[in-house]
Amino acid sequence: MTSAVFVPLHFSYVQAIFTGLIQGVTELFPVSSLGHAVLMPAWVGGSWRVFASSDRYFLVTIALHLASAIALFLVFWKRWLRLLAAFIQGLIRRDFTKTGFRVLWLILVATVPVALLGYLFGDYFQTLFGKPLAAASFLLLNGFILIGAERLSRSHGTYVDPDVAIAERVSVGQAFVVGVGQSAALFAGISRFGITMSFGLIRGLSRSVASDFAFLLAFPVILGASITKLPKLASSDLHGMVGPIIVAAVVAFIGTFVAIKFLVKWFKTNTLYPFAIYCLIIGGASLLKFGLFN
């Protein structure tokens, strides 16, 4: 009888820095943070790939979303407080027509389906996590989605206030649909930000406003995903990984903050095409490596 050889999981500080950087930079770029969290360790190999194939790595990457959520909130905190104040005021006065109330209502409606589907099918999506071939396939698909959104984009006028644009161009039903679309990001390789922004472009929002809408929708989903996984991570045996996880979280926070600042400026004058091309190249190369040549 042969016994299985136990390979201890190892998460070094160097790996933590790269994991945090991947999470921070790619979470709000339309290139899928989970896809990169799967593919990068697979390309590098070694102990990082061994750790990346474990359930604990999945918990760590999801928990790092909390750092991204904090950075996202800090960038838009004045906006969130204004929307929240308008929402509460609308409830008190029973006036549901104000722009701020409507925008926050659209965000809540869009959050429900992704939260529900994530809860119901979370275990299934987790089984796909850690499989480079699946991540490569979905990243390739993500590139085609971004190209399609740019080809179908049709901006209708200019708006000084992005909230007004969102309130006028997006219906409650459409918000629900985009929430379902966000659920595709549960597949590692599909970008939540890319799905949401693509929807905004197709609905006639400018790239700047579409990205703004995507930033708003991202916060509750990212925050919720991290909060639900933190207890599982805390209850697991970390084997001395607390230090690296903290470092990864700090790097993820900084990376997310910088990425948001960059993207806000980028989408004022630029398109999704560079990100689409990147996804096609990396997804195609990974598909060859982990499929044909694996």
Structure description:
- The chain has 294 residues and is mostly helical.
- The chain has one domain.
- Helix content is 78%, strand content 0%.
- It is built from 13 helices and no strands.
- The longest helix is centred in the middle third of the chain and has 30 residues, at 99-128.
- The protein is globular.
Task: Supply database-style keywords.
globular; mainly alpha; 13 helices; 294 residues
Low-confidence stretches: 1-8
Structural class: mainly alpha
Q: Main beta sheet: strand number and arrangement? A: none
DSSP helix count?
A: 13
- Beta percentage is under 5%
How many DSSP-defined strands? 0
Radius of gyration: 19 Å
Termini separation (Å)?
30 Å
Q: Roughly what is the average pLDDT, rounded to an integer?
A: 86
Number of domains: 1
Element-level helix/strand string: HHHHHHHHHHHHH
Q: Globular, elongated, flat, extended or rod-shaped: what is the shape?
A: globular
Work out the helicity level.
Answer: over 70%
